[in-house]
Amino acid sequence: MTSSYPIGIAGQPWTTEHKTQWHKAQILHRSYQQQVVEPLLALSEQFCIEQYGELSYQQNYPLYVAFSKNWHSDKPAILVTGGVHGYETSGIHGALAFLQHHASRYEDNFNIVVFPCLSPWGYETINRWNPAALDPNRSFYPQSPAPEAAQFLQTLANKQWQFVMHIDLHETTDTDNSEFRPALAARDGKENHNWNIPDGFYLVGHSEKPQPQFQHAIIAAVAKVTHIAPADENHCLIGVPLEQFGVINYDAGKLGLCMGATNAPYVTTTEVYPDSATATPENCIAGQVAAICGGLDYLLTLQQ
């Protein structure tokens, strides 16, 4: 399936002028300060909340990380990231809901680190890209051109945290086909080929460390609160062969994905489907929280 895009010249990559045209067409739809920062700062009695950076676009966006106050070097650390793609709403609010309602019961066993929203401009404009038309989730590598990724990576290097688990919270939406894949093809001067949007939740594991039992445990936990995406007629999800029910694998390091940014042995990327006929914002958030808790519950079984 192909489609045209209103910016650029078919078959030619975007120039700087085209990227500027795209940037100027973006509109603010919601408030990062009110909907993300204020709820996060309200948790300052339970967690250390630190500003680790700032993005300077049309306005300044402070970037925050929350982590355990009672940090013990003898406990394993776990990492949760949300909002790498700012438009993927349940990832951001799932990270916040985990901190608000669930993290405390795991702190006896784990040090917890949560970056709830790496791309606040994307959150406010409901965008996959940053203002330079860069996808942060293809930019987690040294000397990253995306400040969303670069400041996150620098913070991990400064803190010298070592993680046993990293869960990166995402969504696959109908707008992937209606907006974001056509825009990507136009930006790169290529023909657009849409993919089948999976109807339900699925995971993307790391092909270099797939951890199938870990992935299975998360799928089982999420299945209690929302449905898992079935494979398409080619036994694939988004064009990738199924590794097991509800799970595909990507080479995260090669692709510059956030889940490949640490040496954690247990990593995954969640994919919630908010456009399902049965989905609600609350249900999508519950799926993200169940994924985090399912991963942690699996790790607890390994400590026994």
TrEMBL record:
Record's superkingdom? Bacteria
Quote any Pfam family the record assigns. Answer: AstE_AspA_cat
Q: Where is the Peptidase M14 domain?
A: 28-304
Ordered alphabetically, the record's keywords are: Hydrolase, Metal-binding, Zinc
Does Cytoplasm appear among the keywords? no
- InterPro entries registered for this protein in UniProt: AstE_AspA_cat, Peptidase_M14
Q: Where is the signal peptide?
A: none
Q: Which cofactor does it need?
A: Zn(2+)
Q: Which family does it belong to?
A: Belongs to the peptidase M14 family.
Q: Quote the protein name from its UniProt record.
A: M14 family metallocarboxypeptidase
